[in-house]
Design a protein that fits this description.
Four copies of one chain form a homotetramer.
Chain A lengths: L1 E9 L1 H5 L7 H9 L7 H6 L1 E7 L2 E6 L14 H17 L6 E5 L1 E6 L10 E10 L3 E10 L4 E13 L2 H6 L2
Antiparallel strand pairs in A: 2-3, 3-6, 4-8, 5-8, 6-7, 7-8
Chain lengths: 170, 170, 170, 170
């Protein structure tokens, strides 16, 4: 039996063009409330930013059959996508205006398999250390019963986004 | 302007039910040629297994807007999905029948951003060391011009799948 | 001007021979109080186990010139040694008798350089998740002022140590 | 039975003061031939740089009882020290004059235990990718029979060392 899923998204240039104009926290709040369109990948995999404060971001997702690997459970890449989002947005949420970031790495530890029966899952990203040039973030993936499903760390490099570049990218 | 994408997949229980019946290489070849349905996640993100031999697996994907993060390039989770698939299938391809595996971790190093302009990308997974209980795999993500876009290592644990369990999972 | 340092240690077979006879916590407490000789590496680099409870271990070290790399600060391997000790002993401290462990990996993030001026440093290991076959531990390296100097995670595999093997290793 | 070991080293400021004056390759060759004193940590643990070319460095060590952990084999920190040295020096060896580097992380995978019976071991560091701001290196630890004992990756950040700072550090 064949299953089908359809999803849609907005032009990602719209959100990218506002980057660096405001603080990261303001950018992410505008995304959460829908003023800035969410990223296409969120629509593709069906996950949502549900909480953000400076240095902390939380995403949720309801695992579905469409996330499955060939061996009968949610693909490790879906774990990684949620963890990378949570870690990256935790870093982003603490950045002032005119500052960008890029992830250097993502170290994922898979702890428990996820299936449809797991129910809604939560990825919580926090900052472990904020340096001048790099920020170390952590992300943890939990089930609704607070079971730890996966753990990740990610180092991000931060850099100034010159004002003229922000204008140029409009 | 709103964009839409639709995809479809087969019941993943079909492929999972054949797991362990044959060697990993046979399983992956059957998947590549379509005898066993591909995993839903491949359809969701649009990537394909194109080469497999014992200890080596290659996936390709054409980056699209649907893979984008909010900051204007392909989300790190998509890198991780391809790398995890390549590393995991390299491990799987070297397993005899009645043997399963599970990924313990995935360490991704992001080297270059990916955009639609990057064109088709390749994830090549190989085995660095095959132990009795764990296998260490590596995966590298390349552009068509052989630029290294990302690098990953992954440790997998291997374990026997008892015959009665294979029958039970039919 | 040439500097010299001398250190001494006990035969490490003495401690290894008691492994698995008692719980990990009992083993580590006996080591801390000197009933079981400390490991040679502790003497070689000058670090000490100062606290241990189930799932947590703390080591201290006073950085000296003998720990330096060629570029004027403490070598990354010394960070790793303390972090590996703290993570590994946190895991060990939670093991019952007749159970052994082995570290599968160590992921170190270097946050701040350490020099002689840093003064005494502390490596605190804790357990993030205890599974049946693997345990995920974390270790953090702090200065006396609680500045985070480095962060690590480590996955350990645990396994039964059969009674006859314990006797044999006497 | 108590064992004792003595080692000695030169003031590490001597080597640090020459940093950035020449290319990294020239610096490391001078260290290998003894024109610049080796780092104290090499003396403390007894390992030696034996090969260096641009983008590649090899260290050797003969495992001894002084490297042992409490559970009867070489401590993971010793693995990490050799791997960090090999990866870091591979990066260093490819740097022009007036350029410095710092390691951001070290991800070690432990593959086989090392004991005195292993005999001399080799850590081979190479560069996987050289970027403008970061370099990704790999290091592998081998026995004399070319068995892979451990594997590591390390990301290093590179930065200009201003000429006045080089003079100042004399």
């Amino acid at each position: 039996m064949r299953r089908t899923r359809e999803y849609s998204w907005e032009n990602p240039e719209t959100s990218a063009a506002t980057l660096g104009r405001t603080s990261g926290l303001s950018f992410l709040r505008d995304m959460m409330t829908g003023r800035i369109p969410g990223p296409p990948i969120s629509a593709a995999l069906g996950f949502t930013l549900v909480e953000v404060e400076s240095g902390r971001a939380v995403f949720t997702m309801k695992p579905g059959e469409e996330h499955y690997n060939p061996i009968g459970s949610v693909h490790g890449g879906v774990f990684a996508t949620l963890l990378d989002s949570a870690a990256g947005c935790a870093v982003h949420s603490a950045l002032p205006a005119q500052t960008g970031y890029t992830s250097l790495d993502l170290n994922v530890k898979f702890i428990r398999p996820i299936t449809i029966d797991t129910g809604e899952i939560y990825a919580v990203g926090t900052i472990l250390n904020q340096g001048r040039r790099t920020v170390l973030a952590q992300a943890q993936l939990f089930s609704a019963e607070q079971k730890l499903l996966a753990h990740a760390t990610s180092s991000c490099m931060i850099f100034p986004v010159p004002a003229h570049q922000i204008s140029a990218s409009r």
